[in-house]
Design a protein that fits this description.
The complex is a heterodimer of chains A (about 180) and B (about 180).
Chain A: H1 8-18, H2 21-43, H3 46-62, H4 73-89, H5 93-99, H6 117-125, H7 129-140, H8 145-152, H9 156-181
Helix pairs in contact in A: 1-2, 2-3, 2-4, 2-7, 3-4, 4-8, 5-7, 6-9, 7-9, 8-9
Chain B: H1 27-38, H2 52-67, H3 73-79, E1 83-90, H4 97-112, E2 118-125, E3 142-150, H5 153-161, E4 170-176
Classes of the chains: A mainly alpha (about 180), B alpha+beta (about 180).
Chain lengths: ~180, ~180
């Protein structure tokens, strides 16, 4: 019998072997809020985010037999989600900042403390898509640069430089907002 | 995910707690389910205790979220709203195992679709009557039940009107739990 106490690996095995809908339901409940939150923050569009999560689950279950457990299930799922978002963007300009390679990374910026959560959310979704993507994956979801590089098909150094630039942009946005509030 | 204490990866996950919590839309579960069923990628096994399993999952996930502080204030408010029992009587049984499994799934989905000022707590299909005391006192056995949180009697009644048991010829009685 399926229970919420089962680990991902056990649930995945049941889903692959028996197409067990209960196993899927537990996995869905466990991971979907985080997937949707990432999708919404990256895509900045609730409908696109929901569609991308839908696509990601379908693609993930279709390919579950290929999941080898070398990464955490959430990491694997998030990689699929990113591809689904990119497929739905259909705008190659959106990929430029993700794929931009090579320039030396600026020093990482410290973000202002005590930022209002809604201001922080607004500042993240106002970033260019590629910056948004690395900030969400690294600073919000906690993935490593190696994991992000695998998800995005880039090298870890690019992820690091993207993140440093993204943080600078974010800091600028948040401090300019603060200057408007506190002259 | 790999080691979080890598100097190269300073700040990993640092913004998570500073951002507002975002929950997936409840309708998404049904959409994904339908797509997977259509492709033959998931199915319910007919020997399960029907409505209960997903119910348990939902409740435990919710309880875990509440315990770890990851449930939003709105969800937390709903969690302390009055509880109601929706008692299900009568209703036709499915003719085949497949029909019964599909119906169980439909009840599942309906229960998990409750949102806003209402929340699904648990539910079970009840089986045979083992005994009745005093003898022959029972007019009609309860076929099953749902426990829900709802902010008012009116909302609980409105929810009961949407219960799929009604369309199978069953009846639903809404009762408060406790006073």
């Amino acid at each position: 019998m399926t229970s919420v106490g089962d680990g991902d690996a056990e649930l995945i095995a049941r889903l692959v072997r028996r197409h067990d809908a209960h196993a899927f339901d537990v996995l869905y409940r466990r991971h979907t809020d985080a997937l949707y939150a990432s999708a919404l923050r990256i895509a900045a569009d609730p409908d696109l985010a929901a569609d991308a999560v839908h696509d990601a689950w379908v693609r993930a279950v279709e390919n579950l037999g290929r999941f080898e457990g070398r990464s955490a299930f959430r990491t694997w799922l998030t990689g699929i989600l990113i591809n689904c978002i990119r497929a739905r963007w259909r705008d190659e300009r959106d990929l430029v900042s993700i794929d931009a390679i090579g320039e030396a990374a600026p020093a990482p910026a410290r973000l202002p403390m005590d930022v209002d959560p809604m201001d922080l959310h607004a500042a993240i979704v106002a970033l260019p898509p590629g910056y948004r993507c690395v900030v969400v994956l690294h600073d919000v979801e906690g993935f490593s640069h190696e994991e992000i590089a695998t998800m995005l098909g880039i090298v870890p150094g690019t992820s690091k430089s993207q993140l440093a630039r993204a943080r600078n942009k974010l800091r600028e946005a948040l401090t300019s907002d603060m200057r408007r509030i506190i002259p | 995910m790999t080691d979080r204490h890598n100097d190269q990866d300073e700040g990993r996950g640092a913004l998570r707690e500073q951002l507002p919590r975002i929950d997936a839309p409840t309708s998404l579960h049904g959409r994904v389910h339908a797509a997977l069923r259509q492709r033959g990628l998931i199915r319910y096994r007919r020997s399960t205790s029907t409505w209960g399993l997903l119910a348990a999952g939902a409740v435990l996930c919710f309880a875990a979220g509440l315990f770890t502080g990851r449930v939003s204030s709105r969800q937390a408010a709903v969690a302390v709203a009055p509880r109601y029992a929706l008692l299900l009587y009568g209703g036709s049984e499915g003719d085949t195992d497949a029909a019964r499994a599909a119906r169980a799934e439909e009840y599942h989905r309906w229960a998990l679709s409750l949102s806003g000022d209402a929340r699904f707590v648990s539910g079970e299909e009840l089986g045979r009557v083992v005994d009745e005391l005093p003898a022959r006192s029972l007019r009609e056995p309860v076929a099953g039940f749902f426990l829900i949180h709802a902010s008012s009697d009116e909302l609980a009644t409105r929810i009961a009107r949407g219960c799929p048991h009604l369309k199978y010829g069953g009846r639903v009685v809404v009762q408060t739990i406790g006073s």
